[in-house]
Amino acid sequence: MKNLTLAEIATITGGELHGDGDAIISAIAPMDKAKEGDITFLSNAKYSKHLASCNASAVMVKSSELELCSSNTIVVDDPYIAFAKVSQVMDTTPAPACEIADSAVIASTATIGTNVSIGANAVIETGAVLGDNSVIGAGCFIGKNAKIGAGTKLWANVSIYHDVVLGEACLVQSSTVIGSDGFGYANEKGEWIKIPQIGSVQVGNRVEIGACTTIDRGALDDTIIEDNVILDNQLQIAHNVHIGYGSAIAGGTIIAGSTSLGKYCIVGGGCVINGHIEITDGVTITGMGMVMRNITEKGMYSSGIPLQSNKDWRKTAVHVHRIDEMNKRLKTVEKQIEKNVES
């Protein structure tokens, strides 16, 4: 990692330094493993009891924990945000590619901006546009007339289909596919007729997309991912889905076609969201949630059955299958009670 002084870290985080500003920090570490030369942080007050015995050269805390610290301290409003900012500066992740590899295949009509890097065996097709400082990893495919914004990075083997637009400062992890055909078919007497997907995908600025995620192109209109969205690994985003500004979706989630997810929504891992529905702004869906209809009010929503022993689950399953029978019996009892009350 890059070495920084505590004074530099205080500037990066906007924090208040208490201690030696010339102390050198060479790594970030968890509180229980930190040693001299490391900086750590306290984002959960229940771990504050460990501050006195922490061996880190410095710790980032809220003002309420300052008096518990025995080493150099930087007081910040949010230690987790401070950790994120310092991590960005000290990040040692290599670039997906450097310069333009000799084995890259670049169409003569492609537009390549300044300071662009293209890895080995990447293919850039006709009419594609790569913005300034963009990085295209090894084995990537950039389709015809696709546009990659300035500063956007693609890791190895990402496929960007024709006419897809990625905004600026995006990050796409390996093996993700953007712009593949949506699942559009008509059935004529048992035979499937493919519906060409003639829309595209529009991805905004500062969007991060995990590994092995698929975002389908629209059938007629475009699939839309607005600015500042974060998408985890192994998601399926179907055709004509619209994901609003600042939303976050965890791994393994499936969103069916033509669904609209509002701004600042959070979707837990393994969720399934039905097609042709609307979810309003500020909704949180906890993991393994199944969304079958519109959500019109912000808030937290959950579904699914928590884990049980197999023996208990079998009993629960039997009860579920008997719900209709139990409901009929309950109605019969209610009617009998009403008769008794009237008489």
Automatic annotation (TrEMBL):
Pfam families the record matches: Hexapep (PF00132), LpxD (PF04613)
The UDP-3-O-[3-hydroxymyristoyl] glucosamine N-acyltransferase non-repeat region domain, residue ranges: 23-88
PROSITE patterns registered for this protein in UniProt: HEXAPEP_TRANSFERASES
EC numbers for this chain: 2.3.1.191
Annotated catalysed reactions: a UDP-3-O-[(3R)-3-hydroxyacyl]-alpha-D-glucosamine + a (3R)-hydroxyacyl-[ACP] = a UDP-2-N,3-O-bis[(3R)-3-hydroxyacyl]-alpha-D-glucosamine + holo-[ACP] + H(+)
Keywords in alphabetical order: Acyltransferase, Lipid A biosynthesis, Lipid biosynthesis, Lipid metabolism, Repeat, Transferase
Lipid biosynthesis as UniProt keyword: yes
Pathway: Bacterial outer membrane biogenesis; LPS lipid A biosynthesis
Coiled coil: none
InterPro entries (UniProt xref): Hexapep, Hexapep_transf_CS, LpxD, Trimer_LpxA-like_sf, UDP_GlcNAc_AcTrfase_non-rep
Enzyme's top EC category: transferase
Function recorded in the entry: Catalyzes the N-acylation of UDP-3-O-acylglucosamine using 3-hydroxyacyl-ACP as the acyl donor. Is involved in the biosynthesis of lipid A, a phosphorylated glycolipid that anchors the lipopolysaccharide to the outer membrane of the cell.
HAMAP family: LpxD
Protein name per the record: UDP-3-O-acylglucosamine N-acyltransferase
Gene source species: Vibrio gallaecicus
Upper lineage: Bacteria, Pseudomonadati, Pseudomonadota, Gammaproteobacteria, Vibrionales
Gene that encodes it: lpxD
